[in-house]
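Hi everyone,

Forwarding the result from last night's run.
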Amino acid sequence: MKYKINEIKKYAEDKLQECIDYDDDYLEKDITEIHNEIFNTDYYIIGTYEAKQWMGSYAFDIIGYIKDYEMNNFGEIYTELSDPEKVVNMYVYIIGEEVLEEVLEEVLEEKNKQNKKTKKQGVNK
């Protein structure tokens, strides 16, 4: 499912950049730890109304996606599927797993480009 994947990817990029700005060694952490910090220590959506609006007509598709994920990974359903806020946040958590590796690669590429540019400028002085 790709519902709002670009929005979630942008969220991951922004949160990752905040973490890097705060801690220069942040990228040394394991990807599962980074995923947990970005997608499991704060809510993506707060409030039932906001969650319902965010899901729109995709609510049942999102619920089905979560059910499949949890059955495949845990053998049972843990998310309270009657709570729109919990549904949205779990969906974002799952999609976060899918996009985080790509986001990390992009950030590392950009960081390497900046390092090369900085080294090159240092040589030219």
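The two ends are 51 Å apart (CA to CA).

Cheers,
N.
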